Amino acid sequence: MASLEQRLKNIDKIISQSSEIGRHVPARYNINPGADLHDKSKPYRQKTFGERNDNNKPHKTILLVGETGTGKTTLINVMINYMLGVKREDKVWFEITDELTSEQMSDELLVQSQTSRLTIYGFYLQESPIDLTIIDTPGYGDTRDINNDKEIAMSLLNLSRCDNSISEIHAVCLVINSTQNRLSHRQIYIFDAVQSLFGNDIAENIVLLFTHSAGQSPKNALMAVKVAKLKCAENDKNQPVYYLFDNCQSESAEEEDEMIQKLSWDRSYKGMENFFKFVENIKPKTLLMTREVLQQRNQFEAKILNLRSRVQEVEQKHNELKQTKEALKKNEEYVKDEKNFEYEVEVQYKERVDIDPKRWRLTKKATCCTVCEENCHYPGCWWAKDLSWCSMMKDEHCTVCSNKCHYSKHVKEAKIYESKTKKEKRTYEDLKKKYNVKIYDTVSVATKLEEKLKELEKEKIKMVIEAFHCVETLELIALNTDSLHTLQHIDALIEKLKEINEPEKAKTLEDIKKRAGEEKQGALGYIKCLLRKK
Predict the structure, then answer these.
(1) Which end of the chain is more exposed for a tag (fewer CB within 10 A), N or C?
(2) Domain boundaries, the chain
(3) 439-441-443-447 Cα dihedral, nearest 10 degrees
(4) pTM over 0.70
């Protein structure tokens, strides 16, 4: 621990490197970053303070997640002041976060600020006893656009793949308002979304940080955590590991509030002291399993969306076959007399259309296969220039499109394929050439059509099984095995499994649905309600 004289020297030095925010007590200063990188080619914004050049100094990586408005921004600054040894009697407060929070921004500024979904703070000042990397995620549960939460997961996946310096996490901090008194459908959704980010190896690194605390045990909030079956680190009494914080250290203190302010400061200091003891002793976890979980979830959703398109295509082919058979029967005399004839059928075709710019704040591009004419990843990898990095790719080939094409056959543009139908006039001569039938034979043509239909059915069955295997994999590796992300699509997959005569696989999914319970079914209703408002 630094002496009083050294501590005051350190504070004066940091003040000299900072910009003043306010002159009240405590005086607020924003530490000037050495670098503030906002590279649009990367899935995050990076702010660096100092230089990491002491290999002997401990380095810890911390990830903060939580609901919008819980006070994650303030907690980051509490961490920084604790690391710098700032005391209440110093009457100063340092900040490294942006002054405006998402709650204070206008919608226009908020959209601009979210062009990088994550913010990474690299805190490497000499005055700090350890080096810190803090990954700050945007708040969950913004009712203006539920798809923002999907983009948080996408950004974390892309971060884990493109930045080798962030290969492991010491602590995942779930920030919760201590005044939380009941488990609403919205809160279930938020807890579920946060847990759905991680592999099952990281539970013991997850801790609860309760903000806006008055000092007493947050019994109601802890009960909500228990009911939600939230998995996290536990103490020797099998209770969740948590720490208490009050979020008013930087607020100006009037004389009559002196005692309250002191209690607030001491509470947050103790909470941070105990938190960093936990961080010091916990073994970090790599992001390998978490990366696999996020990738499997992305692929599962993409396969389900593509499956719907494939089912529509098969149904349209059935309709086309039916109309063709009717035309052949109606014109049977022409066939017997070896005469050509014209008929009309409704056919499906694909058309590239512009993505609605209002639909997604960030993901205004889709990864599409130009060979299969399918939307392989929509919303797609908004940051990746090289499509081999797309989470739909494995061994440089797509895991979603029908032909599993090479990534080079894909494009990322602000367009998607849409299936449409139109009336088309055909001749029997054209039909014969298309299916390589050399004589006028109604049976031969119909047989060829049936064969084509069977090929499409096989492709559909293959996609159904692939989607099921995604769920199986998630059951093995995910922290949250009955995620709302999976439950959103599980009914459709159960239906398709029954259609292809896979009752045992369908039962496996039905068991997952039952295990999720009524609480998550209510949260599903909450999600659907938000999506209807879009």
Answers:
(1) N
(2) 4-169+252-286, 292-479
(3) 30
(4) yes
